[in-house]
Amino acid sequence: MLPYIGRRLLQSVPLLVGVSIIAFALMHLAPGGPLAVYTLNPTITNQDIERIRIVLGLDQPVHVQYFKWALGMFSGNWGNTFFGGRPVLDVILERMPATFLLMGSALSLAILIGCTIGVLGAIRRYSVFDMLATSGAMIALSFPTFWFGLMAIYFFAVKLGWLPSGGMNELGEEGNLLDTLRHLILPVMVLALVITAIWSRYTRSAFLEVMHQDYMRTAKAKGLHARQRLLSHALPNALKPLIALLGIELPALFSGALVTETIFGWPGMGRLFVDALTMKEYPILMGMIMFTALFVIAGNLIADILIAALDPRVRLS
Amino acid sequence: MSASSGFRLSRRGVIAGGLAAPLVLPSGIRTGHAQSINKDRIILGMTQEPVQFNPLLWVNAGTENIPEVCMFDALWDVDENGTFFPNLAAKMPTKENGGISPDGLIWKVELRSDVKWTDGQKFTAKDVEFTYQSIMNPGIAIRSRSGFDLIKNFKVVDDTHIEMELSKPFIPFAWAWQNMHIVPHHLLSKEADINKSAWNAMPVGTGPFLLKQRVAGSHMIYERNPNYHRGAPKVRQFIHKFVPDQTVLYGQIKTGEIDYMGLSGVPNDRWTEARAIPDRVLMSVPQPWVQFIYFNCGKPQFKDARVRKALTMACEMQKSIDDVYYGTTPRTLSYLQPTHWAYNNKLKDYTNDPTGAAKLLDEAGWKIGADGIREKDGVKLKFSCSTTAGVPARQNTQALFQQNWKKIGVEMEIKNMPASVVWGEYTTKSQFDTLLVAWEPTVGMDPDYTARCHSKQIPVKGGVGSNYVQYENAEVDRLLELGVTQGNPEDRKVTYGRIQEILNEEVPFAAQLGTVQGNLAKKQMTGIKTSGYTVNCAWNIHEWGWA
Amino acid sequence: MAEPLLEVAGLKTHFPVLSKLLRRRVGTVKAVDGVDFAVAPGEVLGIVGESGSGKTTVGKSILRLIQPTEGSISFEGRDITNLPAAEMMPLRARMQIVFQDPMSSLNPRMTIGRILAAPFEIHGVAKGQELQDRVAGLLGLVGLPEDAAQRYPHEFSGGQRQRVGIARALALRPSLIIGDEPVSALDVSIQAQILNLLKRLQGELGLTYILISHNLGVVSHICDRVAVMYLGRVVESGPREALFFNPKHPYTEALLAAVPMPEPGMRRARVPLGGDVPSPANPPPGCAFHPRCPRAMARCAIEAPVPTQLGDGHVVACHLHGG
Amino acid sequence: MAEAVLRAEKLGVAFRIPGGRTKAVDGVTFELRHGETLGLVGESGSGKTLTSLALMRLLESPPAELSADSIVFEGRDLLGLSEAEMADLRGARLSMIFQEPMTSLNPLMTVGRQIDEPLVRHLGLSAAEARARSEALLARVGIPRPSEAAQRYPHQLSGGMRQRVMIAIALACRPSVLVADEPTTALDVTIQAQILDLLRELQDELGTAILLITHDLAVIAETAHRVAVMYAGRIVETGPVAALFATPLHPYTEGLLRSIPRITRIREAELPEIPGMVPAPGQLPAGCAFAPRCAFADAACHAERPTLMPAEGGREVACWKPRHG
Fold first, then answer.
1. What is the pLDDT of residues C166-203, one digit of tens each?
2. What is the torsional sign of CA D136, D137, D141, D147?
3. Is A5 on the interface with C (CB under 8 A)?
4. What is the complex's ipTM, to 2 decimals?
């Protein structure tokens, strides 16, 4: 397994290089640029802008800038932000725990609930429960996340006053786990709602697919109880496509987290990305794109390893 | 589809877009909980987050001004009436007190001797000199040398005295130092690269507060500086909190989670409701930006000042304010806010006069053609109007003017683009027909407007300024040159009053409104002074407290 | 023997085996590993074998649907083994294939008329009224009503769809038709109809067939000569009578003995064949059949037998016979 | 004559379709005796597989609806059993093997575990006991090195081996009835012979009655004692294999037998074929379902549907004009 992981990681290097080249090129091709914030300020002259351009190294040809950046990355230096000159890795890492906490909690909760709903829906297809779950998922998916976010804030924070409306901690309560949990409830609820909706659909169709397989009929013909058929026959088989999907869906979840973070003032990476995008903070954007790419590669690798662990056809061929 | 139905449609679009807001924040909402005030601290809520705190490097006006004003001081500040008053300087240099030489070229500044950096080091003229040197250092990403580039010679006389010799007399020079906070020589001079210094994230200044903690993406906590030279702040803690969604931020001031909502303020459509919230005060704060229709005088349609004036006359300016901005913004007739000390109160509002407009166009030789559009010498009175795409208020303004102009035989096409495109070369290289823009004066809040309308400031004609409308008027040029040398505000008021008068007749840009911001604060807060002379809502933070 | 229409010599078609996890080549499937045969004009050659014998790969290699690894294929006197695609195009009209499951090769969104018109249009041989007539003619040829042209594939039964498949193959008047298990998916009563149709068409149009099938009854009914494949090679070939009633290779004998007969009590003495067909990725050394062969000798495990002529076109590759 | 271990009376399977129901299996009555093999033969769409699933109560309902006067198995009417009681029988007394050995085994589970399951479930064996029994079963169905084979996954076995595993699973608890639905259709002819031989041996050993469902008359001829021919959802003819093959009474049976291509020294110029095709369920003609394809049909055949009527030698036929009669 270790050589396999090593090889996969090695295979991802060209991918990362490709992603970085495309991202770098697109960023520099897009109109504007980090100095655009200055252009319309009448107190900032063209000479000022030229001077800053040189200080930031933006005067060099794009490929030179890219190689400088890539060389830095290669030696573990993610570069410094244009505005403030902070190390990019620091800027990203200080936001990472918040995003991982939010995404991790929402994802675990959503998968747990979504899978349960999906399995029950698949078992009792066309039942009242299934109909309700299906229409519930449709409703959840047809409203934008920000709307759910605002509604949740209105009811639970503004009207009922049960929960805080945003942020990760009450002021001065940083590190208080209980306080963080209180703040986590609403954003997780909102983010999990959409993921649950998607996940319950995936699970339902994965289970329906599996339950029509010949080996499920064999299991029934053996006289196995429904629970045993579900747990030892249907579940592992249905899990396989779901794991693969999770690997693919991770980036999409990232973007869902972005909206949620903005609504709830959650101090995560999503907002960092939006801010960096507005300001054309190339070093942060590149850093985040690389980080996301690594994250997605790791996610897919883990998914593949899990699938190999689950499926002897992959493992033993 | 008629133009009027088009307008109504887009109004409906606004309502649909704002769907969530009334649901989330119905008026008359009971906010009984979390209302007890912690008088130990003040929490300011904003949608944006500052990214670095070195006054030399700031990027985002309004946002990064907050850490700056908390931790640093300038030589002098400007008050809510537009008057300069000393801060790190012992007194404001003027011609009267001898601080400025009669020819306006030598500025002598006496510094306070009782100021200390928060690490205990004494503040001296060396710090001012270092700040100046850093500004002129090509290796540091200083945003602007505007004003400082006039300094021919900078001299430290002694620990508390400096002298600056300017290359030309320039009264608005005071704004350069008002806008530049002084950084410590003893700490930064040792830095190999100030651009990447760790100090930028945890700086030491002379200001009323010390940065105690920064939680990225969430908030910053400041502690009072007990030794502050203008007197210790009234509250122990100042907290700068970031809530990225404006609606949520508004909700938080209603629930009392924050004490003051600044920078982006209460949305225009919620002002009436916000005024009715008990124990809150809504403050209409004039902002530096005035919204205009920019006419590109380089285009054949707009060469004749009569055409520009006629087009302005046809616009229902007041209606645009009432309908689109819910009447929250003041009508202005010049490039200054009506509250500005140099604003010419005698200007006449001749808008909402389609008949007069049509007549003026007839006089100017623009006759209605076969297709109902005016034309002259083969040129049709037909043009585009551009602004940032996706801003409903601006689209609605455009749609209204489109209707107004249609009535007098003028065809306007809305051509909005992403910000980076429309404000790029499309603007700076004067490629546009007309623009809907909101821009600020050119030197701080000084009435000087050289960069925007002096004939030597046209970029496409080799100028260095921002005269994108390509406006040229010899008298305006002369008055602009005079105004910056006049030491007496009364004299200046006359000069700039005349400039405003000419611009109101020749209209290179038709002023629509002065932007305002609805800052909302708890009623019990004291010391807040709203000022139209700064974008920094916390400019006098050291005076804030609780009743 | 007359000048053969098709001649296959030393044909090898190998596929790489990739591991699932690493997508690395871990071996080679020698699907076809040295096959020689010739088909005379108007002849029907049957290729029989069990799954994994490589019979389908032979068919696809001939049509160059799969590029062979080695060997040569001559069609109508011309070596087509390495013809570029552009030159292959007109030849494709001359050699056609009929698949087991016509449904998967018929576009479900096209009417039968459109499907049958397509070959004429692609090769630009007919249009307008002539095209209509040709399509109608084809339908009549395979025994479908004329109104079938307006209907879609799903409206037909399996047997009728196979008729469409045959009609399409016949459109451009090919000289050679390769039938890859053309009747295996059909019920017995329908199978008889299609077999009769194929036989009738052969007589009427002077077609040459290569019929690939695992069903010995079908092959016996329609073929003139038969080649038996085992693990990528032809172990025995010859005229139908010789092969079915005087088999020489122990595998052919076993195969024949295993075929159930629809006459109760007529069961043949089974030749006990142990085990399974080995994987073509890892064939046994020597004679590939020797691990299952009831008459295997020491030599069989070491040395691969070469084909031996037994006269009358009967060829067998077995150490029991000849060399 | 041995007594019946399974008897189905007027078994039917219907499907709900828009605007009504369509009967895919209609009034099928047959019995299976101890230790015998009954062949259920028919072409696709004849309803033979539905019949077998209905017996096992494995039909998915909805959409399928099962009806029968009774299905008596070992003296109990299966129709009256709860799902739990039915599950107790399945795999224990009443087993089934399926057509596709490639897909009928769980790909993620070792074959050993898949054989263990019914042993643990029905016989209450411990895991170790079950495994020992499974390995013995694997050996019995002719899989070499059984303890090693038990550790393998289905994809590591050939089709023939998988079908042997399926047989081991089905016969693990020594059922009295085995329903074998096209057990050799997906297999090569040499492997088919092995599997059919194995089934016969095990039947002799265990006395299991086999309901052999197939479309292949040759397989029936070699394997079954008695045969029931289905056409369009109904049984059209039953009888002992030898007699039925020698003198088919129903024109359909006769046509079917004649249309099989055989290995003969002198081949017929043309195979006798049955014209037309099997009618779709729901589009059955009013009279005999085979009448439109039948060379001997007359007005009576088209008018009224014949029922199964006894004929000589314990045979039955549903035909107004039986052959050789």
1. 999 888 889 999 999 988 888 888 889 999 999 999 98
2. negative
3. no
4. 0.70
